[in-house]
Amino acid sequence: MTKTRKMIFLSLLVSQALVLHIFESMIPVPFITPGAKLGLANIITVVSLYLFGEIETFIVIIVRLLLSAMLGGSISSLLYSIAGALFSFIIMVLIKRVGKDNVSLIGISTAGSVFHNIGQIAIAALIVQNVNISLYLPILTMSGIGTGFFVGLTSRYILNHLNKINVTTKLFDDKG
Amino acid sequence: MKKWDVIIIVALIIISFIPEGVMLITISNKHNSLYVEVYSQGTLYKKLPLKKDSGKVSFTIDNELGKNVVEIDNEQVKIIDADCHDKICVKAHAISKPGESLICLPHKLVVRIIGEGKQETDEVSF
Q: What was the ipTM of the complex prediction?
């Protein structure tokens, strides 16, 4: 029962992240900066990092990436998004482990979105074999901090509501 | 918003300026003559001198990934046309100083300016 419930919850998270990802690609980005985006799917990553553990979050991320590549992406865009997602996942896990209660969702999601950009720039630098592209980083970081801040706020509201309806306690009751 | 969040954000801003700082340190602006290098898919495609009064020169890089038209006007280099969908390289400002570059990601095209007799700085510094 626990396993099934958990699996269903994880797949719900994946589908939510997918919908956010697709919805996001429909919103025109108001900047000229390529690569700057809202990072709405990061909401789900942060939520699942808090609701579940690191392994489950990793599964959610990988499944989301593969599915979004199948639903209208290309191999190169998959490469970019995998690099970005892995960078941001690693830094978020690190900050959550080191910071514990000292750090809030906003700090974690901001670091996550900035490192998403860093990962993508690293891959772009590898592909064109030119490091100068990293000079782009400050602009992307500014937009990443802005979006990461609001992603963190949104995740906090989501987690508050999920706690109200006792999703987590139900899950953990079944576990025990 | 907790105290650590502010620290993290400040740290992120500092990290993002590292490449800029490295670039400033490694590139000296004193060069006798400048060259324009065009890299297509990682290999050197063309190398042209960049000097005053050379007039307008434009050439086209056309391969299976797409087409870009590069224009050298006196001391400035610009990509004036491309058939990629976002046209970011066309919107970019003209470059004229060593170390600056124009990049078209979908076509794997890099146009950059280097100074004569100097080592390639960016690979070393990274």
A: 0.74
